[in-house]
Amino acid sequence: MFNRDRWKEIMEVLTGNWFRTVLTAFGVFWGIFILLILLAAGKGMQNGIMADFGDIATNTMFIWTQATSKEYQGLPKGREFEFKLEDVATLNSSMPDLRYVSPRNRLGGFGGGSNVIRGIKTGAYNVFGDYPQIIKQDPLGITSGRFINQSDIGEKRKVAVIGNGVKKELYDKGENPLGSYIKIQGVNFMVIGTYKRLDDNNGEQGQKQIFVPFTTFSQAFNRANDVGWMAITANDGASITDLKETVVSILKKNRKIHPDDNRAIGYFDLYEQFNRVQSLFWAIKFIAYFVGILVLLSGIIGVSNIMLIVVKERTKEIGIRRALGENPWSIKLQVLMESVFLTTISGMAGISFGALVIYAINTLLEMNGPVDMFLNPSVSLGVVIGALTILVVSGLLAGFIPAQSAIKVRPIDALRTE
């Protein structure tokens, strides 16, 4: 069935009118190329946005206090307040679906004065009082030493973990900071570790932060049991978005906030934002497939039209073959093979060219540095295999109508055709 004479005939038919064949093939070539480029661009955007999330626990919310907007239980409107450590304990005990409730306090901030001294060098840095689990919610790449542990919390040790940006500004090149001391607002802390952030969300400032035990921070800087804000992560299988309302209600009750006061407590639901981004990715992928397949479909229609013309041109030949006793299925198979061959070859050319363009884009990105929200555009092997499947099926569909038309030709009518 797949003999040399059949393939020779296929090549003669397709090369008989080169210009027409190339124009027909270009429709399929362009359709599959557009499909790959759109999918790669969508993947590049997804990679870039997901890189901004880094390894942070996405099922997390951050919550802080603001001024009250309603009077409640004799307390005035506009009241400033703080969370307390007992709020953390209440959330842990009453909400088993919460995995981590991490209180945090902070010194410094953007535009603040120098608050850290080492020898004759000074710097202005964010200093955070944290519990050990914060590193599981907002991962840091420890480059030397270690992070805060539970013993540091229990014994209120004056230890600190500094970013590589702090190390660069306060220490000489090649100097090992581990075991040395820095002075934070007049209090000495021993450096036990250094880190480099795994993401660039905070840019250079993200590498210029200092972490100390929460209990030590509270004692050294007179914060008592105050909590500036909290990072709250839900267990796997639970959604922090679904738990958010309960968390806020508990905190309102503990801090004597009016239940309808929606401005007293601020929060950022990372999981909700993450899901919105995921929905955007699905929409982008759908649009890529929709547009790409429509363009490809136009190319397939072109192939079908050309095959109809080819069958029309070969009416007399088909009639003679039928008169000589050739099986109608053999003629039908011939037309189908011509259609599949044309779509597959042109489609493979589109895939190859698309791969080269994607490779060139990645090379330019590596040479010129990363682009915001765009990283490593690519398509998976599954997409390529799917594209090849679409090409074969499309070729069969494109050739089906012309093949049916070919076998309907009556030998006597075909022989009369001039």
TrEMBL record:
Q: Where is the MacB-like periplasmic core domain?
A: 21-247
Where is this chain primarily localised? membrane
Q: Which residues cross the membrane?
A: 21-41, 286-311, 340-361, 381-401
- Where does the record say this protein resides? Cell membrane
Limits of the ABC3 transporter permease C-terminal domain:
290-405
The membrane topology noted for this protein in its Swiss-Prot or TrEMBL record is: Multi-pass membrane protein
Q: Which UniProt keywords apply?
A: Cell membrane, Membrane, Transmembrane, Transmembrane helix
Q: Which InterPro entries match?
A: ABC3_permease_C, MacB_PCD, Macrolide_Exporter_MacB
Please name the PANTHER family in this protein's record: ABC TRANSPORTER PERMEASE YTRF, MEMBRANE COMPONENT OF TRANSPORTER-RELATED
Q: Which family does it belong to?
A: Belongs to the ABC-4 integral membrane protein family.
* Protein's name according to its UniProt entry: ABC transporter permease
User: Where does this protein come from, organism-wise?
Assistant: Pricia mediterranea
